[in-house]
Amino acid sequence: MSAGVFGAEARREGKRARTRARLMDAAVEVFARRGVERASANEIAHAAEVSNGTFYNHFRDKHDIVEAVAFRIATDVVRRLDAAMAGLDDAAERIAFGTRQIIELGASHAEWGHALVRSIRYLPELRRQATAFARADLERGARRGVFDVEVDDLLMDLFVALVTTALELRLSGEAGDEAGSKAAESQLRMLGVPVARAHELAWRPIAPLRFGLVEPA
Amino acid sequence: MSAGVFGAEARREGKRARTRARLMDAAVEVFARRGVERASANEIAHAAEVSNGTFYNHFRDKHDIVEAVAFRIATDVVRRLDAAMAGLDDAAERIAFGTRQIIELGASHAEWGHALVRSIRYLPELRRQATAFARADLERGARRGVFDVEVDDLLMDLFVALVTTALELRLSGEAGDEAGSKAAESQLRMLGVPVARAHELAWRPIAPLRFGLVEPA
Amino acid sequence: MSAGVFGAEARREGKRARTRARLMDAAVEVFARRGVERASANEIAHAAEVSNGTFYNHFRDKHDIVEAVAFRIATDVVRRLDAAMAGLDDAAERIAFGTRQIIELGASHAEWGHALVRSIRYLPELRRQATAFARADLERGARRGVFDVEVDDLLMDLFVALVTTALELRLSGEAGDEAGSKAAESQLRMLGVPVARAHELAWRPIAPLRFGLVEPA
Amino acid sequence: MSAGVFGAEARREGKRARTRARLMDAAVEVFARRGVERASANEIAHAAEVSNGTFYNHFRDKHDIVEAVAFRIATDVVRRLDAAMAGLDDAAERIAFGTRQIIELGASHAEWGHALVRSIRYLPELRRQATAFARADLERGARRGVFDVEVDDLLMDLFVALVTTALELRLSGEAGDEAGSKAAESQLRMLGVPVARAHELAWRPIAPLRFGLVEPA
DNA sequence: AATGAATGAGTGTTCATTCAT
DNA sequence: TATGAATGAACACTCATTCAT
User: Fold this and answer.
1) How many beta-carbon pairs below 8 A join chains C and D?
2) pTM to 2 decimal places
3) Considering all CA atoms of chain D, what is the largest pairwise distance in Å, rounded to the nearest integer?
4) Could you report the per-residue pLDDT of A158-172, keeping only the tens digit for each?
5) Does one domain contain both A174 and A141?
6) Range of A9's domain?
7) Fewest Cβ atoms nearer than 10 Å: which of A7, B21, B207, D106?
């Protein structure tokens, strides 16, 4: 097993934290490979190369690790995007940028991407929580007339569905690297942004985010 | 168990066909109640009031009945919509009408609706096949300049995701009966239809489809 | 595995009944060997030479088979004793006879005897139910002045404890075949029967009961 | 955790002894709360506020601590009773007094009482050892004609069963505070003591023993 | 064609015990 | 000595699937 996203962070912590991180990395992998529903505690433990008993030293049950992983993934993406968009003020720009970055991030870290898609679909609670930051942008944009919509739960779910669907197709290989731009363009149109401006924002070149937490030595 | 969607149609066929139809009706019910993952062959057989052995006389395995049910559901909706839209020519009108009808149909037949969402979302093969008719409308609209998009697999999946997401929220009770109009409006905007026209088409009053179980011969 | 107590009765019934009987026989054996607490469903299934899944086709859980076995054992003993004591009227005679027969029965069918001891200790509910017939004798004897006691729950439990303790020691090999007489004598003394009469009743020769349900061909 | 029975006595000894005593006190508590079978080493260690590893520094395995606790409990009761009955000479008086005191002691210290019942009932070895002092009284009484019995293992077990059964019912709340007198009366009758004398000895008022935790040096 | 008893691999979970620190 | 993370066999229970009837 490669170090994984969480394992890399835990390298300097105690043994308990390292094992926990190994389990969470393994869970991401198994969720991606088998789906959250079909993943079993045993399989996660096996993938983490620990005994099945160890799983239960660290997580109360399957639901517990699902939550932990989903929460970490959501936290990750929010933290990363927030940092990357520090300088961006325009709501439409932020939306386009965020959507494209998430899709690229998910596509270039396939396991993480699959886990993200599945977590977001599987856990409505998490969906609301993790997309709160996007909702803030949408509401701000709507107030300022950048968007021409009423922001409600349904709109948010439609908005999110466009991201997850595009990412899913990207991951399956059926969509190429323009998936992010296409999804973002669709979102902006949906929000009432004029076609030309939507196109410009969605296709403007951007630098990909780096996922890595471990700096090059 | 009341005569379900499939059972009603099989009434005139042989005994084998009737038993098969009973199983499929039962499957729809159990899938809706417990989810496809958690539905067991035994439970389906029990709901169909046949023995568990009989299940395997009619379906190779669980996957087999899932596919059969999904296929029938998709076929159903296509047939019904095609019939209902016989007189509609304008691609945008057809899109708005179709989306709204599917959502209302799914919402008013919850079991069928849940099964539809799950089928469409988790069986890509079926998704392509069942949405071929919509794709034809999109392509025609694009050629005629009604829509301003390039119709590809990604666009289709984004398009479909808006329907399934809206239907899902409708079924969970979190969205009300304007869900169909909102979803349709989002779709039209996404396709490049001017905001005003999108609004008009999506909110224009329509008569709900009947889920006619037995057509006159 | 030998035919067992329950299996013998089921020989002429359907397959389902035969398997159920095998499981109950196996349970008696495992309860005797390992104790009710430590017996596992898997071990019972294994002893019955059926798969572990079959166990759950016949019993909801371990508690279910414990109850079934205990109930059958209690029913058995009551039925047998009732029949054997049809002609006995004197309460003291009945008590002495019953106690001695149960102990001999349990001693000569060790598995059944162990299961009886453990069931009676483990299930207070069953204890009350299975000893109702003895309580009736005690109350009748008390009313007629044969016994000089107040019959209450505590007295009944003390009374029963003398039987189970004697049977247990008999089964462990630490007590010989006078265990029944000694226990009966202690009981009668405890109930206020004069020493000489208690001795006479407890040691008077009796013919052992036969357990066998299957008549010689 | 309050200082238990064993902990209090170990206060002046070394650290190792104190930890061991804490574990034994915790074991008594957990055995009472969950039953010996269902008590886990982890739970005992947790209740003793030491790590689970420490448990195995002090006891070879779970069986080991069960024995140690049982032995200490038995030793306790013998020591206490012996001291309290220093002035009593008559065998029948000693029996009645001892039985009643044990039952009251067990009833007023429920954890200890439960542990006592379980130890005595399930560890025959311990039973013989812990009841040696009572056996001496029985044998002396028999020699002197106070009792009219032959004292053997079976008689001892019947005798003890009356104590444990009465204590158990007392602990479950199904018997009240006359349980001790009733059990003692039954025992005396069983031993051949005349009914009137048995009654007098069993119901004569006595002062309850104190479960003194720390004796003055 | 239908039945339903039986199967056995699989699931989630517990816990006595070991061992590196 | 004490720690506590890790182990792995065992448990209760489920369910897709087979097969004799």
Assistant:
1) 67
2) 0.82
3) 58
4) 999 999 999 999 999
5) yes
6) 5-59
7) B207
